[in-house]
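As a warm-up, study this chain.
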Amino acid sequence: MLSFWEQCPTDTGGVEFNIINIPEKKPLSGIIRRIFCIGNPISGKVLRSGFCTSAFPASQDIPCEWLCGGATIWTREILNNYKYDEWYSGWAYHEDAEFSYRVFKKYRLFVVHKAGVTHNPPPFNPAKNVALGKMAVINRYHFVKKNPELSIPLFYWATIGEILLNLLQSVWELNRNGLRISLGNLAGLYHIIRGDMVQVDENFRK
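Now compare it with the structure written out below.
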């Protein structure tokens, strides 16, 4: 990581460690992601639906439009001039995409492939998966609304695909986790359609 900073472009604002233990997606999942504007072959891209494509594990240094918050180093200039959107509360799903995408509009962002790390969070509490699904939809909608170059209609289309993928997850994994998340997704859509942008503040580890 230090070697990269010594030779990176002068307009670099942030760089991310390369998370090397991300599980591979199932082939059918990739097809559905493409159809519903959730996925894209280009790594590290913010799609017009508000979904972001992963840039890791990376086999080379990759320029990105967003960075994962927990594995990123920012320049002092960025930290002095950019603040996190305080609308996001608690665990705040998607707040890293919102912050880094704003930085991307003026600076360059990268994932450094030789700076490998593993991401080993404690397990989610399955009882909180409904709240997780609700938060994912509402927070992503907030992100799309803030950026006029993104698309509200594509957000709705992609959310339908997300619900489908979560239902398929329950089938693939023979559990109810995906079902619970999809119910939360539907609850999030319900609040958005009503114009009730509730903030979901949950501890998903307990």
